[in-house]
Structure formats: C-alpha cells, structure tokens
Amino acid sequence: MNLAPLTQASLAIQIHTVAALLVICLTVLIFTRPRGSRAHRQLGWLWVTTMLGVAVSSFWITHGGPVFGYSWIHLLSVYVIGGIVYALWQIRRGRVAQHRGMMLGMVWGGLVIAGAFTLIPGRIMHAVLIGG
C-alpha cells in the first residue's frame, strides 16, 4: 500500500476517502447489531451523517466530466442523498421493509459499486491499494 497518491490528492478527495472508509466500518458494525436496537439506531444516525458527507463531498471532486465537470458516477451521490431521505421517511412511518431495502441499496450502490470503480487503473485508490 502506498498512501502518497492520497496524501497528494486534493482536500476534497481526502475528506471523501476518510468518510467512505468510516462508513464502511460503520456498515459492518450496524450489520452486527440487532435491528431496531438502541445501538443500531445510534450507529444508524452516525452512518447517515457520514454517508451524507461522502455524497456531498463528491460534488467537489470533478475531473472534466460531460456536465459541468461531473460524471455519471455523481448520480450515485444524488441517489444516496435521496435514498437517505426516503429511508428515514419510511422508518418514521413504520415501514421497516422499505427502509431496509433502501439502506441495502445504498450500501450496494453507494459503497460496493462506487468503491469498485475506485479500483480502476488510473484512479487514486487503485494507485494506493494496488500500485501504478
């Protein structure tokens, strides 16, 4: 592992990366706690706040995409922001299945799929984790 590409990256990328790593850790913790428990709710609020940080910080990361410097991957950030609002609305209404489905969708779309794209050659996290 070589942290130099990350330490030399912009502050927005560093914030985005740290927040994403924290969300990954929080996701694991939340999945190990009983659903609906006090710990689940407290970790959930921290997860939501941090995931919003990941999504919002992405809007300061632009590299010549087709629309004002943004690429299609920024649509995941819009999805996450809307998804968080929807998931919170659903759990407040007692719709646990819809809440769970949206939260899992954000984990898969906003973390797993987006995270996989960071490993493409030429990307900073590829250079950090794989080299090159």
From TrEMBL:
It comes from the Bacteria. The keyword NADP does not apply. Keywords: Membrane, Transmembrane, Transmembrane helix. It holds the Pfam family DUF2306. The chain crosses the membrane at residues 12-31, 43-61, 67-89, 101-120. The keyword Repressor does not apply. This is Putative membrane protein. It comes from Roseinatronobacter thiooxidans.
